[in-house]
Amino acid sequence: MNRKEFIESCRDLSEAELLEIAVRARTMAEKRVPEEMKNLFRSLDDVTEVEEIRVETAWGKSHVFVVQTKEQSAEKRPVLVNVHGGGWTMPHTERDTYFCRRLAVRTGCLIFDADYVLAPEYPYPAALEELEALFDRLPELCKQYGGDPERVILCGQSAGGNLIGGVMWRKKTALKPLAQILCYLPADNYNDHFKGEELDERGKSTEYYGFFYNRVFEERANYDVSLALTPAEELRGLPPTDIVTAGKDNLIEEAERYTKQLQNAGVPTTYRCFINSRHGFVVNLYDEWQEGERYVAERVLAHLK
Question: Is pLDDT above 90 for 94?
């Protein structure tokens, strides 16, 4: 079954069937987390702290983890907002919090690790709208936790990178970040990156996630969904952008196209490919994850100079 045929078959599924598929995928993903990885999650407890909060916004209550080092400066600290990945379908996990703990240690940033509503329960554009409303509350959150609202950097993993790119293009939030760092993001959900080939099980999982998020196929051509389809003139004025890709990821080509579009629009943009890595390597702690983490931290610090 190729991508077109698979998407057609999804149209016949009921809401209950779609939710069952999503819940099963979430359960299986959690079971696949290795024990040695779980053992690392608490390794920075002595030097970092995490507070789980609910933030009232114009959208509703948003779920956020506040991550920071225990030794804090009296001065206002720079702020990093992390948005997790998971194909718009998979929930925030301790892997995401651990990634933020590591970045807090490396950069000294106050980190707001943002959760968001998931598809299929909340399809497009719900997650975009929730993040926009949360970003509008950042000045107050910064004041509450000692962060500097004038020095905010956005960082997104996979679908989180896609959502950040979409929010920045929509320009519906008052937030003006110093930069956005988008890691192995899906940037073209409209075209078939499987190029008509038969889908394996991983490919089917990917396409389920895309269908959960965009039930109406034509929505996938929207610029806040398929960032790489955005004309250069529509991208002007976006914040400086760092694109990070993985050489063994089938999303690499579309991220490269998005990079070129940003550069054509005059947006200061860097591109770095970790050629020996798979999708999600930095958060999932495999392949070149240490080099990738170091690079992301370096980009954060570079934007703060």
Answer: yes
